[in-house]
Write a structure and sequence with these properties.
Elements: E1 18-29, E2 32-44, E3 49-53, H1 60-67, E4 75-80, E5 83-84, H2 90-100, E6 101-104, H3 116-126, H4 131-144, H5 160-171, E7 178-182, H6 190-193, H7 196-207, E8 210-214, H8 218-223, E9 226-231, E10 234-237
Parallel strand pairs: 3-8, 3-9, 6-7, 7-8
Antiparallel strand pairs: 1-2, 1-4, 4-5, 9-10
Helix pairs in contact: 3-4, 3-5, 4-5
Length: about 240
């Protein structure tokens, strides 16, 4: 792997931002069982940019969904910033996802009738951020992702890479501690995709956020602080 282009913000003595222990998840259809995770364990330090690689169907999306509280494991624990998310009630889990975790998916999921700025603004409206503060936050985030001049454009007027940048800005709106990105370059051409990982690294630097990205894109893997391999439902540290 290449050396990071910006100084790492990790503190080896800090409490892990993510701690996964003996995580298992099996999907069942009738009598058929498909194990996705068989005891995955790892930690991610605050300020780290960690990539998870694995073949299609290896369980990367399942793992991110479990960490983000979008799914429940059959066994094991997930702690986010010290909190066992399996022990949280539904209201507390909703608050955790809303206030502390940002999600970026392969399909950007923008609202078609809203402009780029309005899409980024949605999470801020949900938590009733005052208008002046909201406008300033949207302006700063669009500038961060290089779209300051595209605030008024709707998704259909933007390229695939620009739409994904808006999605990243929206995920950062409420200043999450953790950003989960699932194959964020999966629908982008190689040149556009190559710009996404430097953007995520800039996010780590400027926003102080921890990033966990699932990908098989070699360009993205090369820029990560660490790479975890997911195979046969288990995670291992990939060699540098």
């Amino acid at each position: 792997m290449t050396e990071p282009t910006t100084e790492s913000t990790t503190d080896p003595t800090a409490r892990p931002m993510v701690a996964v222990e003996a995580l298992t998840r099996t999907y069942r259809t009738g009598r058929i069982e498909v194990p996705a995770l068989r005891g995955a364990s790892f930690t991610v330090a605050p300020g780290e940019l960690v990539a998870i690689k694995g073949r299609s169907g290896s369980g990367k999306t399942t793992l991110l969904n479990l960490i983000g509280g979008l799914d429940s494991p059959d066994g094991g624990t997930v702690r986010v910033d010290g909190r066992d998310i399996g022990a949280l009630g539904e209201n507390d889990l909703l608050a955790l996802r809303r206030d502390h975790i940002g999600f970026v998916f392969q399909s950007h999921g923008l609202i078609p009738v809203l402009s780029a700025a309005e899409n980024v603004e949605v999470p801020l409206r949900l938590v009733r951020t005052p208008p002046a503060e909201r406008d300033e936050r949207v302006r700063l985030l669009l500038a961060l992702v290089g779209l300051a001049d595209h605030a008024a454009q709707r998704p259909y007027e933007l390229s695939g890479g620009q739409r994904q940048r808006v999605a990243i800005a929206r995920a950062l709106a409420n200043r999450p501690r953790l950003l989960l990105a699932d194959e964020p370059t999966g629908q982008l051409d190689s040149e556009t995709a190559a710009a996404i990982m430097p953007l995520l690294r800039a996010v780590v630097s400027s926003e102080g956020v921890t990033v966990l990205v699932a990908t098989h894109d070699e360009a993205l893997l090369a820029e990560a602080d660490r790479v975890l391999s997911l195979e046969d439902g288990l995670t291992t540290e990939a060699p540098a």
